[in-house]
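Hi everyone, sorry if this is the wrong subforum. Our group has a chain we'd like a structural model of before ordering constructs, and none of us has done structure prediction before. Sequence below.
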Amino acid sequence: MKKTATLCALAAAALYAVNIPLSRLLLNHAGEVMMAAFLYFGAGVGLALYGKAERLLGRPDRQEPLTGKELPWTIAMVLLDIAAPILLMAGIARTSPANVSLLNNFEIVTTSVIALALFHEVISAKLWLSILMVTAASMILSFEGDGAFTWNTGSLLVLGACVCWGFENNCTRMISNKSSTEIVVIKGCFSGLGSFVLALILGENMPKLPWICAILLLGFISYGLSIKLYITAQKNLGAAKTSAYYSIAPFLGAALGMALPGEKPGMRFWGAMALMIASTVLTIRDSIALQHTHEHEHTHTHEHLHGTLAHSHEHTHRHTHTHVHTGGSGLHEHTHDRLTEHEHLHDL
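Answer:
Right subforum, don't worry. Here is the predicted structure as tokens:
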């Protein structure tokens, strides 16, 4: 089971990694906003069909559906998911795919800092060091560095996308106990629709049908199926190990980006990559180190009153807890093994 889960985590990383270099190629046939729209449509519609297929095969989603209580977080998630991919596509069109892939690591920074500011999440010393490394590497990639001090517009747009996704991650966290398939379907369909309307307002042309199909397929693979595989892996490996495997995605994306014609990264890129690799190793070690298991036993007594019948119950519990904390994102996984002994005293 764990081997399958590991393959799922690696597959999730690989499927997301192909997004940036392939998006760069497809942007030759679609506008930036239209591209973002159809990528998210592909994820939403694809996961909706995937969920329907699971139900037909007798494997329904057992997680709770979203309710009105989660509506504010859901709306915020959708709006941020309209802005983020548009900024990403604009960035991909203006800088190298290898740069964009590495800059995706900045999402860790924004997610962690926002979680600290809004939800008072604890950030360890190692994670702070990792955040500083990623920030430094992102700044290196954001400079043109050829003579005068100038910013790389494409890199800044990608960093803007990471900030949006940082906020979006924290919104999604508030509804993460609900159906993951439903969340992805809502993200994809409504964010895709918002981007599509915006593309029409901006006067972007509809891509030709073959390119629409290609973008939809890429969206399903890189945004929809990748997330589904990630969640599948997380159920069996835990959050920390899954994140460790998935952290190779930016580096796979950078390697694929360098394979495109005319892509020859300079010294700034390799220096930034060294910092990114070091920060990734720190983040992984921090996440794995915070996974711990402990066991304890305690006895306590409850007294319950039902009408004229009073019950005094003595319980002995043995609990085994496995906690998984992933960096500053505040994700926790708990496993409980309980042995309970009861002694009942009845007073009438």
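For your construct planning: Residues 296-347 form one domain. The two ends are 52 Å apart (CA to CA).
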